[in-house]
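Support request from a user on the community tier.

User writes: "When I paste my C-alpha cells into the form, the page sometimes reloads and wipes my input. The last time it worked, I copied everything first. Here is what I submitted, just in case something in the input itself triggers the reload:"
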C-alpha cells in the first residue's frame, strides 16, 4: 500500500496530533508586541488586535518539569540506537491540569531539535509522532488509526465490517522505518479502560520492537497504568523496584517556607505582560492570591493570567488587579465554587 506524501500546509489550525500541526507548533515563535506600536485608543478592539492575540497564549513558562523534559529528551537521544534490551520508554505522570501535555510536547520538541542539530536537513524525516490514545480501541486494527492520521494517511473502512477501519499497521511501520521515526508521544493514556490495556500495549510494544522507537506515555496515573499493562501476568518486582522511568509533574507549592519556585513562575508571567499600566513586579504582588485561585496548577494559572490580561486591555484598565482576577471564571474559588461571569 503506497503512503501519500504529506501535504505542504502551514498547519496553523491543525492539532499537533497531525504532522503539519506538529511542525507548526514546533516552529512557532511567540514574540511579545511592542507597546509603543499599540497606543491606547477609545475605538473598540478587534479580535485580531495584536495584544489580544498575544495574551491568548503568551510564552510557555519554564517550570522545573519543563526543564527536566529537555534533559529527558537529551538522555533519550544518547541512549537511543539498536540495543539488545530494546528502546527505553518513559511516563509523564501527575494530577490533571498540571501541564502534563505541555511537558510531553516539550520532550518531543527538544528531541526533534536535537535531531535537527545533529543530522543533515531532510524534509521527509519524521523523528517524532504525537498521538492521543483513542477511545475504546477494542482491537489492534483501531490502534493503528491515530498513527495513520498523524502521518496523513486516509484510512478506509474495512468492507467486511462497518465498525472497523482497515488495519494501517503495515504502512505506518513502513513510514516510521523509512522516515527516521525515533520517538512516539502518547497522550491521554489514562483514558484506557482496564480491559483495553492489553490490546493497546501489545500494539505499542509491537511498534517499539519492530521500528525501534521509544514511547513516552502521558496521563494521570500513567506510571501505574504502564507498569500494570507491561507486567501482565508476571509477578511484581520486590519492594516496588523496576518499573517505567517517570517524570512527575505536580502543582507548584506556595507557603511561607516554600514560595521561591512559585515566585519564579509568576515573575516570568509578569515580565511577559504587555499592558500600558503594568509595572514590573505588579503581578508578583498578587502571588498569594494567584495561588489561592489556582492551587499552583499551571493550566489554571496560565488561563487565569491570560484571560485577565485580555480583559484588562478590553476594559481599558490596562493592569491586572485582584478584583479583575476574581471576575474571571477560570481558577478555584474557595468561598464560591459556582461563581460565574
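"...and here is what came back when it finally went through:"
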Amino acid at each position: 500500500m503506497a503512503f501519500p506524501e504529506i501535504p505542504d500546509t502551514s498547519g496553523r489550525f491543525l492539532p499537533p496530533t497531525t504532522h503539519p500541526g506538529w511542525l507548526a507548533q514546533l516552529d512557532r515563535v511567540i514574540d511579545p508586541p511592542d507597546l509603543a506600536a499599540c497606543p491606547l485608543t477609545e475605538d473598540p478592539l478587534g479580535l485580531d488586535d495584536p495584544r489580544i492575540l498575544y495574551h491568548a497564549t503568551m510564552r510557555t513558562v519554564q517550570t522545573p518539569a519543563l526543564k527536566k523534559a529537555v534533559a529527558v529528551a537529551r538522555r533519550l537521544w544518547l541512549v537511543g540506537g539498536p540495543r539488545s534490551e530494546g528502546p527505553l520508554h518513559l511516563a509523564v505522570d501527575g494530577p490533571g491540569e498540571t501541564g502534563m501535555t505541555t511537558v510531553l510536547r516539550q520532550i518531543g520538541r527538544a528531541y526533534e531539535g536535537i535531531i535537527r542539530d545533529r543530522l543533515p536537513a531532510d524534509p521527509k524525516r519524521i523523528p517524532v509522532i504525537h498521538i492521543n490514545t483513542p477511545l475504546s480501541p477494542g482491537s489492534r486494527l483501531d490502534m493503528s488509526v491515530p498513527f495513520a492520521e498523524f502521518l496523513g494517511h486516509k484510512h478506509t473502512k474495512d468492507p467486511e465490517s462497518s465498525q472497523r477501519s482497515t488495519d494501517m499497521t503495515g504502512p505506518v511501520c513502513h513510514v516510521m522505518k523509512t522516515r527516521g521515526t525515533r520517538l512516539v508521544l502518547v497522550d491521554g493514556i489514562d483514558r484506557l479502560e482496564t480491559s483495553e490495556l492489553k490490546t493497546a500495549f501489545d500494539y505499542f510494544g509491537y511498534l517499539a520492537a519492530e521500528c525501534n522507537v521509544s514511547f513516552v506515555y502521558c496521563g494521570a496515573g500513567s506510571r501505574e497504568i504502564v507498569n500494570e499493562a507491561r507486567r501482565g501476568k508476571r509477578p511484581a518486582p520486590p519492594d516496588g523496584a523496576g518499573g517505567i522511568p517517570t517524570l512527575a509533574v505536580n502543582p507548584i507549592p506556595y507557603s511561607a517556607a516554600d514560595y521561591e519556585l512559585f515566585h519564579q513562575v509568576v515573575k516570568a508571567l509578569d515580565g511577559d505582560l504587555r499592558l500600558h499600566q503594568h509595572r514590573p513586579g505588579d503581578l508578583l504582588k498578587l502571588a498569594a492570591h494567584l495561588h489561592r485561585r489556582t492551587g499552583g496548577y499551571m493550566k489554571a494559572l496560565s488561563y487565569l493570567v491570560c484571560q485577565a490580561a485580555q480583559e484588562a486591555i478590553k476594559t481599558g484598565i490596562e493592569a491586572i488587579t485582584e478584583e479583575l482576577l476574581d471576575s474571571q471564571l477560570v481558577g478555584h474559588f474557595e468561598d464560591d465554587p459556582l461563581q460565574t461571569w
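Agent notes: The reload is a front-end session timeout and is unrelated to the input. The longest strand covers residues 128-132. Residues 157 and 165 are 4 Å apart (CA to CA). Escalated to web team.
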